[in-house]
């Protein structure tokens, strides 16, 4: 499928993609590029990369496919560094959880003749680093591709083909719409989980220990979400600010209404809402996302 | 262990307890008492009750153990109805997610010579009704017993023995402390999940369908929690108002601080919090609650 594939950043997502390529023989040579020597050594040891280098220019030389899989805030600077060294026809893709900000940062640095195909696999775990990856991570999960107006059709198709090999279901979408949908399905839930776990962390030590001990009654699910990579998530919120703040505003209004209902003892308002939310769960099960 | 056990209310929790008793031969006769004929028929059909009746007085006659497993708001009225018909030495227990309000409602109706032992198994699923139960539900989960000052020690021990047979780990606690801990570990997480799923339910239809389709990226976990029994949860919030409002207030303050950090582009504040919440997950894993 590809002669030479370069991963810039090779944590949970990048290393899982590399494992898919190794498993299915999709790349003759895989190059891993990361700043930390330890990460590169791990990639060699795990056999998920054939060559490693901390140097952007050397990493992308002669590569057919370049996957940027670092926290979003670094993407612009990486694109600037690799742009001049891309070979004609090279495809650059990414895996960021925000698409418009990445497009704005990366596109200007992609030279004529090379192609940028933004993509976002909706997959992950709360673990980070190249050791955390596994090739089945994307199996049955969505990958959203947000092609640019005028994107090269065959480049888009190649990225699509890779994600299909990885077992993903593919959807294409406009970047700003992607960011709005993900603000609701992913970014706000993460923000809330981080918040509630932080609130618990601020409790007096005795009470905190009890909260951990009895976490299985609901809190536990939030701790799993709130164990996700801090830098990655910082960048998500910094780069999808408007959409996140808009949905957060709605959520806060709704929470205030519930708070008022509890304070006033309005059980009917609570029950009506709680019955309504059950129906959404049914939708999630029907969509085979449960 | 018991000659005659009566369940008043036999949904997910009650029917799971009855299944444990059937499995381990802990009761000669199990009586199910519920208002709806359909529920009683289901219990007979499933073989989890030997006798059924909608009548409180008839249900508790000669029973050694009476388990109240209905939504909390009904517990006072049930205690009032069964009190005069309890045999000397009868043990009344419950399974409510709030303890102080239940004690206040039930205790005054328990006659001298009978014993009330409040308990709360920290177990459940998002499914309801007698069909939803299974005997392994309590395996490895906590059951918190909140004995009253002056509770009969042998009655407490009998309730404890049952929960141990069910596979639970037992902890005793003061009722008001239980309510404070559960407000954080369970009630607030449920309130937030109900809220966010409600916020999504209010979206325009197209966007709502997309949120369901891409729910696996975080939102899904909230929909599962928000599919829990509406009446049960209404009663939890109505009966643990103070503790819930207090922790909700803290949560809201913390969320407002994060909102401000996002608006101002203060990535460092976000990253610091996100790194901190990871440590709590480690605690949950160490406590074998993950």
Break the fold down into its secondary structure elements and pairings.
The structure is a homodimer of 290-residue chains.
Chain A lengths: L1 E7 L3 H13 L2 E7 L3 H10 L4 E3 L2 H5 L4 E4 L6 H8 L8 E4 L5 H7 L8 E3 L1 E3 L20 E4 L7 H13 L3 E4 L2 H27 L3 H9 L5 H7 L4 H10 L1 H24 L2 H20 L4
Parallel strand pairs in A: 1-2, 1-4, 2-3, 4-5, 5-6, 8-9
Antiparallel strand pairs in A: 7-8
Helix pairs in contact in A: 4-5, 7-9, 7-11
Question: Would you write up a description of this structure?
Answer:
Two copies of one chain form a homodimer. The first copy, chain A, is α/β, with parallel strands linked by helices and 290 residues long. Chain A has two domains: 2-174, 3-Layer(aba) Sandwich (Rossmann fold), CATH 3.40.50.720; 177-286, 6-phosphogluconate dehydrogenase C-terminal like domain (6-phosphogluconate dehydrogenase C-terminal fold). In chain A, 53% of the residues lie in helices and 13% in strands. Chain A has twelve helices and nine strands. Chain A has helices at 12-24, 37-46, 56-60, 75-82, 100-106, 153-165, 175-201, 205-213, 219-225, 230-239, 241-264, 267-286; strands at 2-8, 27-33, 51-53, 65-68, 91-94, 115-117, 119-121, 142-145, 169-172. In chain A, the strands form two sheets. In chain A, strands 3-2-1-4-5-6 form a six-stranded parallel beta sheet. In chain A, β2, α2 and β3 form a beta-alpha-beta unit. The mean pLDDT of chain A is 95.
